[in-house]
Amino acid sequence: MMDLLDRPDVGSAAWWDAVRAAGTPLRRPSTGGGVDLAFLWRGSDCAAVYLDVYSHTPHPVTGPTGLQRVAGTDAWVWRTTLPADWRGSYFLLPAMPGQEAPATGGRQAIRAWWIDLMGRQASADPFNHQPAHGTGWGVPLSPLLLPQAPVHPAWRAGAADGDVGVHSWDSPRLGVTRDVWLCATGTGENLPLVVLLDGQYWARHMPVFGPLQHMTAQGTLPPAVYVLIDAVSPERRGQEMPCNEDFWLAVQEELLPAVAARHPVTPDPARRIVAGQSYGGLAALYGALRWPQCFGCVLSQSGSFWWPDPARTEGDGWLAEQVKAGLGQGARLTALLEVGCHEHDMTGVNGAMAAALAGAGHTVHYTQFRGGHDWICWRDGLLDGLALLLKP
Question: Predicted confidence band at 61 (pLDDT cuts at 50, 70, 90)?
Fold first, then answer.
């Protein structure tokens, strides 16, 4: 497919038809065993076109990654090479004249510019043949799954969602109303309970109900009750996820009693899991450490254990320090922590968190998966992690 870039008619209608038929990014095997890729954008009026390939391109605040325009055409191109087992997400961001990255003001100015432009003009790749998904906050994403990328079979099974209901939780303690999804994958007494943070993503953008039903039917998961909690907005997520006592008290005092009134969930903390990703991974572990009588198992994916210092990439963050100071003392949690090998600023703090938990006597499963800070990666680890934690 990369041969398309060598044609003399780059940018012609016939060439774009060929691109559309081939799908993007264009690709070919690399001599080093990876895959050479070319990302494309079509636009004659653009002043610039930016690209964010999660966990590959540099963070935009250090200088956004831009495509290069093929002279005399409406074609924009950016080339790179990735491992053959790469799985991840990306989006493209066209900028009109006057919307280019600011030349002054430093990182804060670039960050504000990027967030504003991303919120208004970010686009999934129109030539990517795979269905787009999203961040949960309106930014469309295209998946990039190279030939050797793993995909959990439950995501391919096409199972029906089963018994799923969406409910409104009006919290007096938190002062906000939000959606909560309840999914029961079977019947019986004392069903395991799974609380999944960032529920809006797993309910709307990467619906997890069918895969959970499939794995339950296959016997990989036991029948259970899943509670997916909407984060409401990025601002509220930033308030409630980082080790917020009020949030977890509201969950225990308001939400979970309502769940128990609908479904016969177990009171045994060893069969009650809280799971989350990024800020949600931090929140999940904090909730279990602070209230082990409610949650005895944790699934933390790419947990933001740098918090509250975003510059921290190694050593103990605040939560690890609290564990060493006695938080969760007397409890014996089972914690599964995973982080992507391409998350270079996250592996150190996640490893330190795992070590702190193990040193405090908790049962810890710590892994580095092949991937980055990305929902496409977390979706497989979520299913495998639940299967491990719910294993009899």
Answer: confident
What strand order describes the sheet that includes 272-277?
163-171, 176-184, 225-229, 193-196, 272-277, 297-301, 334-340, 363-369
pLDDT at 71: 96
Taking alpha carbons only, the member of 136, 251, 246, 241 closest to residue 194 is: 251
- Please, is 81 exposed, middle or buried when counting C-beta atoms within 10 Å of its C-beta (0-12, 13-18, 19+)? middle
Condensed to tens digits (0 to 9), the pLDDT of residues 102-130 reads 998 898 999 999 999 999 999 999 999 99
Token representation of residue 77: 């191109």
Q: What is the CATH number of domain 153-389?
A: 3.40.50.1820
Percent of the chain past pLDDT 90, that is, above it, reads 92
What's the 3-state SS for 301-341?
Answer: ECCCCCCCCCCCCCCCCHHHHHHHCCCCCCCCCEEEEEEEC
Which pLDDT tens digit goes with each residue over 289-327? 999 999 999 999 999 999 999 889 999 999 999 999 999
Tokens representing residue 208 in the block: 């997890």
* Range 19-43 average pLDDT: 97
CB atoms within 10 A of CB 106: 9
Query: How far apart, in whole angstroms, are the C-alpha atoms of residue 252 and residue 33?
Result: 50
Q: Are 272 and 256 in contact (CB under 8 A)?
A: no
Q: What pLDDT is stored for residue 135 in this prediction?
A: 80
Domain segments of the chain as ranges: 2-145, 153-389
Q: How far, in Å, CA of 165 to CA of 61, rounded?
A: 40
Class of domain 2-145: mainly beta
The CA–CA distances, whole Å, from 54 to 77, 143, 205 equal 18, 10, 17
Tokens encoding 296: 């005895």
Contacts of 156 (CB under 8 A, 6+ apart): none
Of the candidates 40, 145, 150, 49, the one whose C-alpha atom is nearest the C-alpha of residue 100 is 49
Across 157-237, where does the E strand assignment appear? 163-171, 176-184, 193-196, 225-229
**pLDDT band for position 161 (cuts 50, 70, 90):** confident
Hey, is 270 helix, strand or coil? Answer: helix
